[in-house]
Protein backbone atom coordinates (compact mmCIF):
# COMPACT_ATOMS: atom_id res chain seq x y z
CA UNK A 1 0.00 0.00 0.00
CA UNK A 2 2.88 2.37 0.75
CA UNK A 3 3.98 2.06 -2.89
CA UNK A 4 0.76 3.67 -4.16
CA UNK A 5 1.41 7.28 -5.34
CA UNK A 6 -1.19 8.64 -2.89
CA UNK A 7 0.87 7.42 0.08
CA UNK A 8 4.08 8.96 -1.29
CA UNK A 9 2.90 12.57 -0.90
CA UNK A 10 3.01 14.58 2.34
CA UNK A 11 -0.04 16.51 1.09
CA UNK A 12 -2.01 13.25 1.15
CA UNK A 13 -1.00 12.59 4.76
CA UNK A 14 -2.06 16.09 5.81
CA UNK A 15 -5.44 15.74 4.10
CA UNK A 16 -6.04 12.26 5.56
CA UNK A 17 -5.26 13.43 9.09
CA UNK A 18 -7.44 16.47 8.46
CA UNK A 19 -10.32 14.06 7.80
CA UNK A 20 -9.85 11.81 10.84
CA UNK A 21 -9.51 14.50 13.52
CA UNK A 22 -12.84 16.28 12.91
CA UNK A 23 -14.61 12.96 12.39
CA UNK A 24 -13.79 12.24 16.04
CA UNK A 25 -13.66 15.69 17.62
CA UNK A 26 -16.88 16.95 16.00
CA UNK A 27 -18.86 14.26 17.80
CA UNK A 28 -17.39 15.34 21.14
CA UNK A 29 -18.17 18.97 20.37
CA UNK A 30 -21.72 18.58 19.06
CA UNK A 31 -22.81 16.41 21.98
CA UNK A 32 -21.06 18.41 24.68
CA UNK A 33 -23.62 21.05 25.68
CA UNK A 34 -26.56 18.66 25.73
CA UNK A 35 -24.56 15.90 27.44
CA UNK A 36 -23.27 18.08 30.29
CA UNK A 37 -26.65 19.75 30.88
CA UNK A 38 -28.73 16.54 30.73
CA UNK A 39 -26.34 14.14 32.47
CA UNK A 40 -24.25 16.32 34.79
CA UNK A 41 -26.54 19.35 35.38
CA UNK A 42 -23.89 21.84 34.26
CA UNK A 43 -24.48 25.60 34.54
CA UNK A 44 -22.46 28.39 32.92
CA UNK A 45 -19.91 28.06 35.74
CA UNK A 46 -19.15 24.35 35.17
CA UNK A 47 -19.08 24.65 31.38
CA UNK A 48 -16.69 27.58 31.73
CA UNK A 49 -14.39 25.54 34.00
CA UNK A 50 -14.52 22.53 31.65
CA UNK A 51 -13.67 24.65 28.63
CA UNK A 52 -10.83 26.33 30.49
CA UNK A 53 -9.45 22.93 31.49
CA UNK A 54 -9.77 21.83 27.86
CA UNK A 55 -7.56 24.72 26.82
CA UNK A 56 -4.75 24.11 29.33
CA UNK A 57 -2.96 21.62 26.98
CA UNK A 58 -3.24 24.27 24.28
CA UNK A 59 -1.65 26.78 26.62
CA UNK A 60 1.18 24.27 27.19
CA UNK A 61 1.59 23.55 23.48
CA UNK A 62 5.04 25.19 23.49
CA UNK A 63 6.27 22.03 25.26
CA UNK A 64 5.86 20.18 21.96
CA UNK A 65 9.30 21.42 20.96
CA UNK A 66 10.83 19.40 23.84
CA UNK A 67 8.81 16.31 22.94
CA UNK A 68 10.23 16.59 19.42
CA UNK A 69 13.67 15.93 20.87
CA UNK A 70 12.52 12.31 21.30
CA UNK A 71 9.98 11.74 18.51
CA UNK A 72 9.66 13.00 14.95
CA UNK A 73 6.90 15.47 14.11
CA UNK A 74 5.02 13.13 11.78
CA UNK A 75 4.92 10.34 14.37
CA UNK A 76 3.87 12.74 17.12
CA UNK A 77 0.99 13.97 14.96
CA UNK A 78 -0.28 10.40 14.46
CA UNK A 79 0.19 9.49 18.15
CA UNK A 80 -1.72 12.61 19.20
CA UNK A 81 -4.52 11.71 16.82
CA UNK A 82 -4.84 8.32 18.54
CA UNK A 83 -4.90 9.87 22.02
CA UNK A 84 -7.73 12.17 20.94
CA UNK A 85 -9.73 9.19 19.69
CA UNK A 86 -9.30 7.34 22.99
CA UNK A 87 -10.38 10.42 24.97
CA UNK A 88 -13.57 10.76 22.93
CA UNK A 89 -14.33 7.03 23.08
CA UNK A 90 -14.47 6.96 26.90
CA UNK A 91 -16.24 10.31 27.45
CA UNK A 92 -19.75 8.88 27.65
CA UNK A 93 -18.82 6.54 30.50
CA UNK A 94 -18.02 9.41 32.90
CA UNK A 95 -21.19 11.56 33.19
CA UNK A 96 -20.03 13.32 36.36
CA UNK A 97 -18.31 16.64 36.84
CA UNK A 98 -14.85 15.24 37.70
CA UNK A 99 -15.13 12.45 35.15
CA UNK A 100 -15.93 14.94 32.39
CA UNK A 101 -13.05 17.17 33.45
CA UNK A 102 -10.58 14.25 33.27
CA UNK A 103 -11.75 12.79 29.94
CA UNK A 104 -11.78 16.29 28.48
CA UNK A 105 -8.16 16.79 29.52
CA UNK A 106 -7.08 13.49 27.91
CA UNK A 107 -8.87 14.30 24.67
CA UNK A 108 -7.47 17.83 24.73
CA UNK A 109 -3.84 16.75 25.14
CA UNK A 110 -4.12 14.72 21.95
CA UNK A 111 -6.09 17.39 20.12
CA UNK A 112 -3.78 20.33 20.87
CA UNK A 113 -0.53 18.48 20.29
CA UNK A 114 -1.95 17.25 16.99
CA UNK A 115 -3.06 20.71 15.87
CA UNK A 116 0.29 22.22 16.81
CA UNK A 117 2.36 19.67 14.92
CA UNK A 118 -0.06 19.52 12.01
CA UNK A 119 0.17 23.29 11.51
CA UNK A 120 3.96 23.08 11.63
CA UNK A 121 4.11 20.29 9.05
CA UNK A 122 1.72 22.11 6.72
CA UNK A 123 3.75 25.33 6.74
CA UNK A 124 6.96 23.31 6.21
CA UNK A 125 5.76 20.99 3.44
CA UNK A 126 3.53 23.29 1.36
CA UNK A 127 4.92 26.03 -0.88
CA UNK A 128 4.09 29.61 0.13
CA UNK A 129 2.27 30.29 -3.14
CA UNK A 130 0.05 27.24 -2.62
CA UNK A 131 -0.56 27.50 1.14
CA UNK A 132 -3.75 29.65 1.17
CA UNK A 133 -5.51 27.34 -1.29
CA UNK A 134 -4.19 24.20 0.42
CA UNK A 135 -5.35 25.40 3.85
CA UNK A 136 -8.73 26.06 2.27
CA UNK A 137 -8.73 22.48 0.93
CA UNK A 138 -7.96 21.22 4.43
CA UNK A 139 -10.95 23.14 5.77
CA UNK A 140 -13.10 21.58 3.05
CA UNK A 141 -11.90 18.08 3.99
CA UNK A 142 -12.56 18.86 7.65
CA UNK A 143 -16.02 20.01 6.67
CA UNK A 144 -16.76 16.74 4.85
CA UNK A 145 -15.66 14.74 7.91
CA UNK A 146 -17.70 16.95 10.22
CA UNK A 147 -20.74 16.67 7.97
CA UNK A 148 -20.45 12.88 8.12
CA UNK A 149 -20.10 13.00 11.92
CA UNK A 150 -22.99 15.40 12.50
CA UNK A 151 -25.31 13.64 10.10
CA UNK A 152 -24.53 10.33 11.80
CA UNK A 153 -25.15 11.79 15.28
CA UNK A 154 -28.42 13.28 14.10
CA UNK A 155 -29.63 9.96 12.64
CA UNK A 156 -28.34 7.78 15.49
CA UNK A 157 -29.77 9.86 18.31
CA UNK A 158 -32.94 11.26 16.76
CA UNK A 159 -34.15 8.20 14.84
CA UNK A 160 -32.55 5.27 16.67
CA UNK A 161 -32.26 6.75 20.19
CA UNK A 162 -28.65 5.59 20.52
CA UNK A 163 -27.18 6.56 23.90
CA UNK A 164 -24.47 9.13 24.48
CA UNK A 165 -22.13 6.37 25.69
CA UNK A 166 -22.52 4.31 22.52
CA UNK A 167 -22.16 7.31 20.21
CA UNK A 168 -18.94 8.49 21.83
CA UNK A 169 -17.53 4.94 21.82
CA UNK A 170 -18.43 4.32 18.17
CA UNK A 171 -16.71 7.41 16.80
CA UNK A 172 -13.74 7.32 19.16
CA UNK A 173 -13.16 3.66 18.30
CA UNK A 174 -13.48 4.36 14.57
CA UNK A 175 -10.98 7.20 14.85
CA UNK A 176 -8.49 4.95 16.63
CA UNK A 177 -8.77 2.23 13.97
CA UNK A 178 -8.30 4.77 11.17
CA UNK A 179 -5.28 6.24 12.94
CA UNK A 180 -3.62 2.83 13.20
CA UNK A 181 -4.25 2.25 9.49
CA UNK A 182 -2.83 5.70 8.73
CA UNK A 183 0.37 4.96 10.66
CA UNK A 184 1.00 1.80 8.65
CA UNK A 185 0.06 3.25 5.25
CA UNK A 186 2.28 6.33 4.97
CA UNK A 187 6.07 6.39 4.84
CA UNK A 188 8.11 8.75 7.02
CA UNK A 189 8.66 12.01 5.15
CA UNK A 190 11.99 13.78 5.82
CA UNK A 191 11.91 17.47 6.94
CA UNK A 192 12.72 19.99 4.20
CA UNK A 193 14.56 22.17 6.72
CA UNK A 194 15.95 20.97 10.05
CA UNK A 195 13.85 22.62 12.75
CA UNK A 196 15.09 24.46 15.84
CA UNK A 197 14.52 22.31 18.93
CA UNK A 198 14.44 25.13 21.47
CA UNK A 199 12.09 27.78 22.79
CA UNK A 200 12.11 30.75 20.40
CA UNK A 201 10.51 34.20 20.74
CA UNK A 202 11.48 36.69 18.06
CA UNK A 203 10.73 40.40 18.30
CA UNK A 204 9.89 40.66 14.62
CA UNK A 205 7.06 38.11 15.04
CA UNK A 206 5.28 40.32 17.61
CA UNK A 207 2.36 41.19 15.32
CA UNK A 208 1.74 37.51 14.56
CA UNK A 209 1.78 36.75 18.29
CA UNK A 210 -0.71 39.57 18.99
CA UNK A 211 -3.09 38.52 16.20
CA UNK A 212 -2.90 34.95 17.47
CA UNK A 213 -3.75 36.00 21.03
CA UNK A 214 -6.92 37.85 20.05
CA UNK A 215 -7.87 35.10 17.62
CA UNK A 216 -7.86 32.72 20.60
CA UNK A 217 -10.04 35.10 22.61
CA UNK A 218 -12.53 35.43 19.75
CA UNK A 219 -12.62 31.66 19.23
CA UNK A 220 -13.65 31.05 22.82
CA UNK A 221 -16.70 33.27 22.52
CA UNK A 222 -17.92 31.16 19.61
CA UNK A 223 -16.88 27.70 20.80
CA UNK A 224 -18.00 28.03 24.41
CA UNK A 225 -20.78 30.57 24.61
CA UNK A 226 -22.45 30.78 21.20
CA UNK A 227 -23.33 27.07 21.33
CA UNK A 228 -24.31 27.29 24.98
CA UNK A 229 -26.65 30.19 24.09
CA UNK A 230 -28.44 27.98 21.59
CA UNK A 231 -29.14 25.30 24.18
CA UNK A 232 -29.76 27.35 27.32
CA UNK A 233 -31.66 30.35 25.92
CA UNK A 234 -33.29 28.93 22.80
CA UNK A 235 -33.60 25.27 23.98
CA UNK A 236 -32.07 23.64 20.90
CA UNK A 237 -32.05 19.83 21.04
CA UNK A 238 -29.14 17.56 20.05
CA UNK A 239 -30.80 17.03 16.66
CA UNK A 240 -31.24 20.78 16.11
CA UNK A 241 -27.66 21.55 17.17
CA UNK A 242 -26.45 18.81 14.82
CA UNK A 243 -28.52 20.32 11.99
CA UNK A 244 -26.99 23.71 12.70
CA UNK A 245 -23.49 22.25 12.56
CA UNK A 246 -24.40 20.50 9.31
CA UNK A 247 -25.31 23.83 7.75
CA UNK A 248 -22.02 25.32 9.00
CA UNK A 249 -19.93 22.62 7.40
CA UNK A 250 -21.85 22.59 4.13
CA UNK A 251 -20.75 26.22 3.77
CA UNK A 252 -17.15 25.29 4.65
CA UNK A 253 -17.18 22.38 2.22
CA UNK A 254 -18.45 24.59 -0.60
CA UNK A 255 -16.51 27.78 0.05
CA UNK A 256 -13.38 27.17 2.18
CA UNK A 257 -11.05 26.35 -0.72
CA UNK A 258 -12.39 29.38 -2.62
CA UNK A 259 -11.78 31.56 0.43
CA UNK A 260 -8.20 30.28 0.49
CA UNK A 261 -7.77 31.41 -3.11
CA UNK A 262 -9.24 34.82 -2.24
CA UNK A 263 -6.66 35.25 0.51
CA UNK A 264 -3.95 34.55 -2.05
CA UNK A 265 -5.51 37.13 -4.38
CA UNK A 266 -6.43 40.00 -2.02
CA UNK A 267 -3.73 39.50 0.61
CA UNK A 268 -3.80 38.91 4.35
CA UNK A 269 -4.36 42.53 5.36
CA UNK A 270 -7.54 43.08 3.35
CA UNK A 271 -9.04 39.73 4.32
CA UNK A 272 -8.44 40.20 8.04
CA UNK A 273 -9.85 43.74 7.99
CA UNK A 274 -13.02 42.35 6.42
CA UNK A 275 -13.18 39.53 8.98
CA UNK A 276 -12.86 41.73 12.05
CA UNK A 277 -15.35 44.35 10.90
CA UNK A 278 -17.81 41.53 10.33
CA UNK A 279 -17.12 40.03 13.75
CA UNK A 280 -17.75 43.31 15.55
CA UNK A 281 -21.21 43.44 13.97
CA UNK A 282 -21.84 39.74 14.68
CA UNK A 283 -20.97 39.86 18.37
CA UNK A 284 -23.11 42.92 19.00
CA UNK A 285 -25.96 41.14 17.22
CA UNK A 286 -25.44 38.06 19.46
CA UNK A 287 -25.87 40.28 22.50
CA UNK A 288 -29.15 41.70 21.22
CA UNK A 289 -30.78 38.67 19.59
CA UNK A 290 -34.09 37.38 20.96
CA UNK A 291 -35.21 35.22 18.04
CA UNK A 292 -33.96 31.63 17.73
CA UNK A 293 -33.89 31.69 13.92
CA UNK A 294 -31.90 34.92 13.84
CA UNK A 295 -29.52 33.47 16.45
CA UNK A 296 -29.01 30.39 14.29
CA UNK A 297 -28.26 32.59 11.27
CA UNK A 298 -25.65 34.50 13.26
CA UNK A 299 -24.11 31.19 14.33
CA UNK A 300 -23.73 30.04 10.72
CA UNK A 301 -22.25 33.34 9.55
CA UNK A 302 -19.89 33.39 12.54
CA UNK A 303 -18.60 29.92 11.67
CA UNK A 304 -17.98 30.90 8.05
CA UNK A 305 -15.69 33.71 9.23
CA UNK A 306 -13.33 31.11 10.72
CA UNK A 307 -12.05 30.27 7.24
CA UNK A 308 -10.70 33.82 6.93
CA UNK A 309 -8.34 33.17 9.86
CA UNK A 310 -6.19 31.20 7.39
CA UNK A 311 -4.68 34.61 6.64
CA UNK A 312 -2.92 34.74 10.03
CA UNK A 313 -1.09 31.48 9.25
CA UNK A 314 -0.11 32.51 5.73
CA UNK A 315 1.10 35.88 7.05
CA UNK A 316 3.43 34.05 9.43
CA UNK A 317 4.67 31.66 6.75
CA UNK A 318 5.70 34.65 4.62
CA UNK A 319 7.69 36.40 7.37
CA UNK A 320 9.18 33.38 9.19
CA UNK A 321 12.58 31.77 9.09
CA UNK A 322 11.90 28.24 7.72
CA UNK A 323 13.74 26.64 10.64
CA UNK A 324 11.51 28.49 13.18
CA UNK A 325 8.20 27.01 12.06
CA UNK A 326 7.96 24.03 14.44
CA UNK A 327 9.02 26.00 17.53
CA UNK A 328 6.81 28.96 16.68
CA UNK A 329 3.82 26.69 15.99
CA UNK A 330 4.00 25.52 19.61
CA UNK A 331 4.48 29.03 20.94
CA UNK A 332 1.63 30.42 18.84
CA UNK A 333 -0.73 27.75 20.18
CA UNK A 334 0.31 28.65 23.72
CA UNK A 335 -0.30 32.34 23.05
CA UNK A 336 -3.63 31.52 21.42
CA UNK A 337 -4.62 29.66 24.56
CA UNK A 338 -3.56 32.21 27.17
CA UNK A 339 -6.93 33.86 26.60
CA UNK A 340 -8.58 30.47 26.13
CA UNK A 341 -7.65 29.27 29.62
CA UNK A 342 -8.82 32.43 31.39
CA UNK A 343 -11.78 33.68 29.34
CA UNK A 344 -14.24 30.76 29.74
CA UNK A 345 -14.04 30.91 33.55
CA UNK A 346 -14.28 34.70 33.79
CA UNK A 347 -16.99 35.04 31.17
CA UNK A 348 -18.82 32.06 32.70
CA UNK A 349 -19.28 34.26 35.76
CA UNK A 350 -20.29 37.20 33.55
CA UNK A 351 -22.80 34.91 31.83
CA UNK A 352 -24.67 34.40 35.10
CA UNK A 353 -25.10 38.17 35.47
CA UNK A 354 -25.99 38.88 31.83
CA UNK A 355 -25.19 36.66 28.80
CA UNK A 356 -25.24 39.65 26.44
CA UNK A 357 -22.19 41.14 28.16
CA UNK A 358 -20.17 38.08 27.09
CA UNK A 359 -20.76 38.88 23.42
CA UNK A 360 -20.05 42.57 23.88
CA UNK A 361 -16.66 41.50 25.25
CA UNK A 362 -16.26 39.50 22.03
CA UNK A 363 -16.91 42.67 20.03
CA UNK A 364 -14.14 44.33 22.05
CA UNK A 365 -11.71 41.55 21.15
CA UNK A 366 -12.63 41.98 17.48
CA UNK A 367 -11.92 45.73 17.71
CA UNK A 368 -8.42 44.96 19.05
CA UNK A 369 -7.83 42.53 16.17
CA UNK A 370 -9.03 45.10 13.67
CA UNK A 371 -6.52 47.66 14.94
CA UNK A 372 -3.70 45.12 14.77
CA UNK A 373 -4.61 44.03 11.24
CA UNK A 374 -4.07 47.61 10.06
CA UNK A 375 -0.37 47.07 10.77
CA UNK A 376 0.01 44.16 8.32
CA UNK A 377 1.87 45.28 5.16
CA UNK A 378 0.30 44.59 1.79
CA UNK A 379 3.24 42.38 0.85
CA UNK A 380 4.54 40.76 4.05
CA UNK A 381 7.91 39.04 3.90
CA UNK A 382 11.02 38.58 5.97
CA UNK A 383 12.23 42.12 6.70
CA UNK A 384 8.77 43.57 6.01
CA UNK A 385 6.77 42.12 8.90
CA UNK A 386 4.72 45.19 9.81
CA UNK A 387 4.21 48.78 8.64
CA UNK A 388 3.55 50.80 11.78
CA UNK A 389 4.51 54.27 10.53
CA UNK A 390 2.80 53.93 7.17
CA UNK A 391 -0.49 52.74 8.65
CA UNK A 392 -0.38 55.19 11.56
CA UNK A 393 -0.15 58.06 9.08
CA UNK A 394 -3.06 56.60 7.11
CA UNK A 395 -5.20 56.41 10.28
CA UNK A 396 -4.35 60.01 11.27
CA UNK A 397 -5.15 61.30 7.80
Keywords:
single chain; mainly alpha; disordered C terminus
Give an account of the 3D structure.
The chain is mainly alpha-helical. Helices cover 77% and strands 0% of the residues. The protein contains 15 helices and no strands. Helix 1 (10-40) packs antiparallel against helix 5 (97-125), helix 4 packs antiparallel against helix 5 (97-125) and helix 10 runs antiparallel to helix 14.
Q: What sequence of helices (H) and strands (E) makes up the elements?
A: HHHHHHHHHHHHHHH
Rounded to an integer, what's the Rg over CA atoms?
20 Å
SS summary, helix count:
15
Average of pLDDT: 88
Q: Based on Cα principal axes, name the global outline.
A: globular
Which spans of ≥5 residues are poorly predicted at pLDDT below 50?
Answer: 389-397
Q: What's the N-to-C terminus distance? A: 62 Å
Most strands sheet:
none
Total E-strand runs: 0
Structural class: mainly alpha
Q: How helix-rich are the residues, as a percent range?
A: over 70%
Strand percentage lies at under 5%
How is this structure best summarized?
With 397 residues, the protein is mainly α. The chain has helices spanning 10-40, 44-59, 64-67, 73-91, 97-125, 131-158, 164-185, 206-232, 238-266, 268-288, 292-305, 310-319, 325-353, 355-373, 388-396.
Topology (SSEs and partners):
Blueprint (H helix, E strand, L loop, with lengths): L9 H31 L3 H16 L4 H4 L5 H19 L5 H29 L5 H28 L5 H22 L20 H27 L5 H29 L1 H21 L3 H14 L4 H10 L5 H29 L1 H19 L14 H9 L1
